[in-house]
Amino acid sequence: MDLDFKESILCDLNRSVQDRDRFVCHAFRPKLGLAGSPGTEDPDASAIQKERRQRESLRKFLESDKIKYERALALQRLNRDPDGVFMNLAYHLAWNVIQRRAVFKEQKDCFESVSDLYLRSSELIGGYAGVLWLAPDHIHVYVESDGERPPEAMVHELKRLSREAILSEFQDIKAMLETGIDLWDEAYFVETLGYGR
After folding, report:
1. 84, 109, 144 — which closes off a domain?
2. Phi and psi at residue 58, in whole multiples of 5°?
3. Average pLDDT for residues 144-165, to the nearest whole number?
4. Residue 197, SS3 per DSSP
5. Does any domain span residue 156?
């Protein structure tokens, strides 16, 4: 998946909030695959499964009560004030696992659970949140918002909710982290992807 995103940004973000002498970025080791190692799977079958998951995720999103409500509300506002504008901001967010540790080595096993977790968190952040990509040491998230909450607040809430759920569901990930160490790094990347009218 090409996100048009330089991975070195995540190491620089991590380095900026951690002890520079102790920080080691594991993302750019020679012959280390960021998003998994090549397997024996049929690439076409994997692409078909990925496309099915994306379609299913979009279908669930479009059929959600929240979206139906927002559509009805937007139509009412449009009837009252045709010049009114409905804002729907979209963001690409990314953040690292602390010290870019590769805790999601088996991301195929984790992807469904983590993706469902972010979908369930959507309502709690006042928008839509979906996983774009889960790499061994970082995550890319797509968020849509009505603009009521700043991106920083959404990021902190998503990190908090996902940390609690992931560490309780995946005991092997919890075991990889030192006691008292958070799952996610403090730094994050955010870019706006546009808005709807």
Report:
1. 84
2. -65, -40
3. 87
4. coil
5. yes
- Shared domain for 65 and 129, answered yes or no, is no
User: What residue has token string 């546009």?
Assistant: 194
In this structure, the number of other CB atoms found within 10 A of the CB of residue 136 comes to 22
Q: Mark whether 128 and 169 lie in a shared domain.
A: yes
The pLDDT value recorded for residue 171 is 80
Instruction: Note the pLDDT of residue 37.
Output: 45
Average per-residue pLDDT in the chain?
A: 76
104 phi/psi in degrees, rounded to 5: -100, 50
List pLDDT tens digits, range 19-49.
666 666 655 544 434 444 445 555 566 778 8
Q: Domain span at residue 179?
A: 87-197
Lowest mean pLDDT among 103-107, 120-124, 138-142, 153-157: 103-107
d(CA 60, CA 2): 24
**How buried is residue 138: exposed, middle or buried, by Cβ count under 10 Å (0-12/13-18/19+)?**
buried
Q: Write the CB contacts of 47 (distance below 8 Å, at least 6 apart in sequence).
A: none
DSSP single-letter state for residue 135: -
pTM assigned to the model: 0.58
